[in-house]
Amino acid sequence: MQNYNETEAEILQTILDNDLGLDDEEIVMLIKDSLSKRAKKEKEDYSFGAKAADKIAKFAGSWTFIIIFIFCLVTWMIINTKLKNKAFDPYPFILLNLVLSCVAAIQAPLIMMSQNRQEEKDRQRAQEDYIVNLKTEIIIRDIHKHLEQIEKKLDNQKNLD
Fold first, then answer.
1. Residue 14 pLDDT more than 90?
2. CB-based burial of residue 111 (10 Å sphere; 0-12 exposed, 13-18 middle, 19+ buried)?
């Protein structure tokens, strides 16, 4: 198996030979360490708050949450309707309205934080796909060049025979 530095040199040489019109930044991205190593490192970089926001947003967008939430709302209304004079939140359920507003005020920023992180992940994935596509194009061009050389050698061999 080839040495990592030899692989870097081959990629760079292929880029220079084929004049792919790449920026310096793109060339550096192609030669950098593997994408899988970077992806593992990035997963570990999230703070406790970021991980918690992702989990809360995931749960808040589930059917489990919706069913539990509807059950709690209906239970709250039934209890306060049945108790009439002893109700802790009589109709029109002002306390329930306050609780729902607080839940929404907390839940909305958490969901937005999670969406922003997801958007960043999507951008990173698109960048990684671009790098993979560039590397693949370089490899395909290199294989094509080698096939042409083999074809020429075979033609020369046939002409000699």
1. no
2. middle
